[in-house]
Amino acid sequence: VNLRCQIQSDGSLACPEIVSDWPNVGLEEAALSFALMYRAAPTLLDGSPSAGAWIDLQVYFKPN
What we know:
Shape: elongated
Helix content: 10-25%
Structural class: alpha+beta
Strand content: 25-35%
Order of helices and strands: EEHE
Radius of gyration: 13 Å
Number of strands: 3
Distance between the termini: 17 Å
Mean pLDDT: 89
């Protein structure tokens, strides 16, 4: 599941956009709940602040 997320000032992610090749409501909801557990570093690799930056987050699920 591909999510488009914005890094918040506390490092948490807000993911208002789901960008998936194939819709699956159950997996999309699960991916959003995982995204709530992620935290970003205060700065990006180039040294700029991470707050307000947009990222593409890919969440993979292993089939049983």
